[in-house]
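Tutorial sheet, problem 5. The two components below are modelled jointly, 654 residues in total.
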Amino acid sequence: MDDGVVAAFVFVGPVGDAGWTWAHDQGRRHAEDATGATTLFVENVPEVAEDFRAVVVDFIENEGADVIFGTSFGYMDPMEELAGEYPNVVFEHASGFKMNDTNFGNFFGRMYQPRYLSGMAAGAMTEADQIGYVAAFPIPEVLRGINAFTLGAQRVNPDVEVHVTWTFTWFDPAIEGDSAAALIEAGADVIAMHQDSTAPGLAAQEAGARWVSYNSDMSAFAPDAFITAPVWNWGPYYARIIEAVGAGTYSPGAYWGGMDDEIVALAPLAADVPADVSAEIDEVAAQLIDGSWDVFTGEIRDQDGNVVVADGETMEDGAMLGMTFFVEGVVGSATP
Amino acid sequence: MSEEALIGLFVATVQFGTLVFLAALGELIAERAGVLNLGVEGMMAMGAVSGFMVGLETGSPWAAFFAAAAVGALVGGLHALVSVVLGADQVVSGLALTIGGLGLAAYVGRNVVGERPETLFTDLGIAGLADIPWIGEIFFDQPPVVYLTVLLGIAGWFVLARTRLGLAIRAAGESAPTTDTAGHSVMALRSGAVMVGGACAGAAGSFLSLYMAPGWVEGMVAGRGWIAVALVIFGAWRPGRLALGALLFGFTLALQPRLQSFDIELLGVEVNRISPALLGILPFVLTVVVLVIISWRYRHRPSPAPAALGLPYRREER
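Model answer (structure tokens):
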């Protein structure tokens, strides 16, 4: 027990968003229960250096925070600065890539793994062989998710097409819901997504289509449409860091954990997913967890038919983190 | 493009058009009275959150709609108090309303984020007419707010163009001293127009949170209030042109996701390869184009903008 540790979390959105920030807050609660540490948090902190600084300095000076978790990409540069100014405080940054040797590390999860599994479920559930994907921004993280999802869908359904619509939003329910509606009108009967709102699910339910949500198990929002979701599970990682800080054994790293570490997972499947598909998903999940197989294992071709991963080879982390293409079977532009 | 997809495009056009038209109609009324209100975004957010909360509490979308209008009018009243009664700068007061309204809405709604009301607006399906192919689904199977907005637009035009009250409102926007001399209270006319404008913006916000994107979450207005402000300029301060502009803006909003799903070639250009990011700025580009056209066409005549727009009026400063 590290009763003395005070862990402070800086959130970019409201904890009630049912998405990204909600998932981080669940992680905070888990870590508090698991370690006995005191946890603090502030919601809706903009990705503006001055705002972020003010919150963090208050946490350190007035609340005695020992470790700061920043949960949005835009906090990266001020975190780097603050880590220099407060060498006795640990800074951990989600989704970034900067770090130092003493008190500043970053962490993220291999969301593409459960996305692949969710793609398998979606591929089994589509009757039209057309899945609509409401995509956020054309960055590697999103492209990787779409590709993994598509490869998973193709595994159980070789004829499937994944139609991508870009919204250029992380959170704009009106556009995201309408984009899902448009994809359904165009023939898709399953909707997947990468934003933080539930609007695509509501649109799918309204149209009698099915839905793969993201971030958290959103089944309560559209129970008839919900199939499953690739979800974040930050708790165990937060608990590990807090324990290391308490024990004085912390050393920073660039952590990119997978399903083996439980930082990413697949939400429970809807009851009507066929049993053989469900069993195959469990099988693949076991391979992902024991490390015997990973998603971007060849042969994989891009949209133009060029081989991007040769047969039997597995893509390196660096190539995955810089992914800029769509795999064969995705309909839409990777560079909109 | 399939028939269903094409119908869907126009159904969404009407709905996005309604959303921005209702908010822009309110802004047009305020501006015709001489008051620029840049707080539309904030008033819409307040309407969205308060409408959603009342809907959650009462289960009645209409109670929610009118509560949102009332809250919008109150928030608009703040702008009237500061900029009309106290004569402060309208731009500053309006911007403060947007920033403050967004923040206050986030605070008020912090406990209902992610909740879902039992009752939302549903499509009306007007008997007989809704079954007509094509136009039935586009024009006669929309939520009631769409039809109410059409009526409000006609009423707004009628009052402004055909009644003594409308004449007085327009006079307040052209020349406050003249209106004052004619025995009308500029303060009452302007404050009233701003509050009616706020009511429209608030109501539009509830259309968003109770129909278009059911639920409340911070940031959900997402710039539609600014589109409404641009639309008033696009419509050259006339309700009829405003309606045309709203449909055009609604069309670009509805086109944004749909264009990507289809292969459309127009004059040898693959239209669906146009970046959706670029498409998103189209309403604002169109507004600038219209501004240029207006200033060219009216280079020898007074501009269609209300002459006293943005100018505070104090009797003793005449």
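Marking note: Chain B touches chain A at residues 1-2, 4-5, 7-9, 12, 16, 19, 106, 110-111, 113-114, 116, 208, 212-215, 217-220, 222, 224, 253-254, 256-258, 260-262, 273, 275-277, 280 (CB under 8 Å). Full credit if you identified this.
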